[in-house]
Amino acid sequence: MAKVLVVGAGGREHAIAYKFNQEGHEVYMVGINPAVEKFGTCVDIKEDDIPNYALENNIDLVFVGPEVPLVNGLIDKLQEKGIRAFGPSKKAAQLEGSKVFSKMMMEKYNIPTAKHESFSDYEKASEYLSQQKAPIVLKADGLAAGKGVIIAETLEEAQHELKEMMCNSKFAAAGANVVIEEFLSGEEFSLMCFVSDRKVYPMEIAQDHKRAFDNDEGLNTGGMGAYCPLKKITQDDINEGVVKVVQPMVDAMSSEGMPFYGILYAGLMKCADGVKTIEFNVRFGDPESEILLLKLESSLYEIANNVIDGKDVELKWNKDAFIGVVMAAKGYPEKSEKGGVINGLEKLTTPVFHMGTKQVDGNIVINGGRVLLVCASGENLQAAREKVYNEIGKIGCDDLFFRKDIGHHSLILCK
Question: DSSP labels for 339-365?
């Protein structure tokens, strides 16, 4: 049994901690997650205090969940103190930390992506935008908690959003630089890979639903649900994503003196003219990781250590279909309601991951944003969907909402 410290306390980190606990390890977590407190030790410490905490508590492995500490260079700081840590270096984490850097790398190494231009000057950006066609995509350069992408249906809307980002600090410093890119149409899928320098080990693919409401309406969110398998994505599509996108990027990072270790997430679009890159992330996707970690039969602890050491990784997967549906606070993704009591969680028979909850006076309450991810599996996607929505029906809270069509891309009939 090893001591594992998970950095972060959202749904993704709950799933990581849950997996380590299932494997029999002693789990510690930076941040307070009321569900993890039932089987692990949660500590409320600052990012800068993590290396010393890991040393003082003889932690065998630190697994960093969210993007912010990775972009801040936490892995480098841990490794400087001789602590085994899973995740990319600060330099490698630029792939997510800067959309401009990511696009520059794709351009330099001929990795297929949307036609785009990057801007730090509002007037030049506005002039370029006026010559494009709608719909069009605006991306804040920096981190914006999964909300820094705007898909504008008209050029008038695009100009308004551009001004909000670059002049009115809609995404604070993250929007000071902006990427304007063509809108890609096709079937989107998430291809996450364990990466050890130039070695790439693809995970099973998943698809998440970004829009807040049914029928892909409403604002973009961090993700309102995910499922696998995907009927519309073939093994040839996956192979194309690995060969033309992921492998060239990890080779490029190594060649540039920024070898990648950890999880590289490629958000891909199957277009009429081939697979193209929407974005790169440098950690598990959320909510895709929750369902994939339930599906993963191999030891996550062993995988993480083999990645760190450059050893081969073997991935074994459950053959069932898996699905996760987000229950979010009313008002999300803009201003979320907080404080509502969530009843009925003890009635659930399938895994539920806490994304934004806290415990108050013995009750689990909403702490804003995405709140819960209710998961289920079945011999096929329809069976898994029926089960997950049945489980959601056991939860009582008027301040939560959820999409009723997660997985609809792969099924004609939606519940």
Answer: -PBPB-GGG--S-EEESSEEEETTEEE
